[in-house]
Amino acid sequence: MLTPLSQIAEALRSARSVAIAAHVRPDGDAVGSVMGLALSLQAAGKTVYALLEDGVPSNLTFLPEVATILTPPYADFEIDVAVALDTATHERLGEKTKAALARAPLLIDIDHHPANPGYGQLNHVDGVQPAVGQIVYELLKAGDFPLTDAVLQHLYTAIITDTGSFQFSSTTARTHEIVAEMLKAGLDTARLARLIYQTQPVRRLQLLRAMLNEMDIRSEGRIASWKFTRRLMDEVQVQSGDTEGLIDTLRMIDSVVAAVIFEEMPDGKIRVSSRSKDERLDVSAVCAQFGGGGHRMAAGARMRGPIEAATETFLTALEHEVRRLA
Q: Distance of CA 225 to CAs 17, 57, 293, Å?
């Protein structure tokens, strides 16, 4: 499942038109990877369509040219190559985006989720990479594609957000080397950090206040969780991207080894986001019990509501794993 990046670069170089997409509810790595690759290929003279089923979250609209990202319904364009980034399963692209990519005779799957089955004709699934943005950077280097300032802004955002500002254990020496290369190229990383972390809307602080007031601590202080209800969403008038990173506040508690947020979805399902702070605790295995998955230290699932029942069911399974720790 590790098609050489040089081979993927050659496939992209041979294409005249390319469509690039990532998973529903995109985060920094998804948006940054899609646009980083798209802008580089455009600079190389390709016709490029960047697709996101759910559009760009409000916290990332500062990034260059994200207004060019297409959302459904898509026009009837023709493409030579389709690229799926940061998307663990084909279905996670979203129904309409998946159908749009199917127009291409070649699908390239580039990801870092270990459970990705390799649903493309070419697959580069590297579960040890901290961010797909890092893989895309290496791909562009391998193919000698343009690395403009706009491209670097997107890829830096992808890397810094998916590594938790370089705090996560998945961060490698190469991650820091890449950022050093970006700095040498003149990228203003301080400006990007301010835009990512220091320009939050008031409603995000209202969510943080609610979470701190309502969080549940159990299992002798080792599990912290919060139920994010539709009532609160309506009250605060939540927008996409507002909850990004909130779970890290739960994880910063000294005794906590696992943090979980349960979010009520419009369809009645409960979105579970979980994080581990102990390498021995594999939250992806817990999420897999409920049809989800992800990384060992960060994973998610969708569960049947109501939120109270889903919360207790998931936390019971998580507590069982936490008790196994010494």
A: 45, 24, 18
Q: What is the dihedral of CA 53, 54, 55, 60, to 10 degrees?
A: -130
- Is the confidence at residue 240, as pLDDT, over 90? no
Q: What is the CATH number of domain 202-323?
A: 3.10.310.30
SS3 assignment for 164-181: CCCCCCCCCHHHHHHHHH
pLDDT band at 244 (very low <50, low <70, confident <90, very high): confident
Cβ atoms < 10 Å from Cβ of 304: 11
Q: Using one digit for the tens of pLDDT, what is the confidence trace for 132-150? A: 999 999 999 999 999 999 9
The token pair that represents 100 in the structure block: 């749009």
Kind plus residue range of the DSSP H or E element containing 300: strand 298-304
Average pLDDT over residues 41-59: 97
Q: What is the pLDDT of residue 231?
A: 95
Q: What are phi and psi of 89, to 5 degrees?
A: -130, 155
Q: Which two tokens stand for residue 93?
A: 């692209």
Q: Which candidate, 242, 239, 260, places its Cα nearest to that of 250? A: 260
> Are the beta carbons of 258 and 281 closer than 8 angstroms?
yes
Tell me the fold of 5-197. Answer: inorganic pyrophosphatase (n-terminal core) (3.90.1640)
Listed by start position, the domains of the chain span 5-197, 202-323
